[in-house]
Amino acid sequence: MKRPALAAATAVLATGALLTGCGSTHAPSDRAGAAHPAVSAASASASGSAGSTPEEAQRKFEEQQKQAAAEHDKAFPAVAAACAGKSTATPSPTPAATASGGYQPENPKYSENHAYAQLMPLNPLQQCRGDAHAARLTAEAAKQPPTGPDQAKALLTRLGYPGATVGQTANGVQFSVSVPKVGPCLSGTLSATPQVEAHGPYLEGGCERPKGGH
After folding, report:
1. Is a pLDDT exceeding 90 seen at residue 212?
2. In what order do the strands lie in the sheet containing 172-178?
3. In this model, does residue 194 exceed pLDDT 80?
4. Cβ(36)–Cβ(6) under 8 Å?
5. What percent of the chain has pLDDT over 70?
6. Is residue 187 within 8 Å of residue 171, measured between CB atoms?
7. Per the CB 3.0–4.6 Å rule, which of 50, 54, 143, 152 could disulfide with 173?
């Protein structure tokens, strides 16, 4: 008799974990900030499933999601307007390439060895938000491309992305950040010719590409 309730609680926790991955890419100093509603949502779901019904935990989680979305839309009204009405149905992950893909005959464990670099899929609303934020960042950075990490960090903070991770590489000033409150991830180059891409978090968590494999 307890199995349906347990399954429902497990589903709530799985949803919270997905959103946590979307919002966990900020610099360490930002991990305790308000930009991570999914963390508290997952915690509320876990505690709710222990002290209340799974339905109540789910309701609390959905309320936190709505609050986070409202705060995002208030901070970025142009993005909210551009993406109003987009679906929140998350697509299924893209299946790994088969033998016809060209690499598995040489290495049957290619997918397993490269799982660390796989991205979680975005629903239409997340993709729209990400693309809108990417276009906004690209346009602003193009006006006066930052020449170093400090300038890039200042630009990102001014535009509303204070939790960005920024670094200097041979290809220019690189950055990675989760859109505050709701995700998804934004990554790319801000110096020279700015290029910004929107994507889901990596399966291992966070917006920064993990180093190495398994």
Report:
1. no
2. 165-169, 172-178, 185-189, 195-199
3. yes
4. no
5. 62
6. no
7. 152
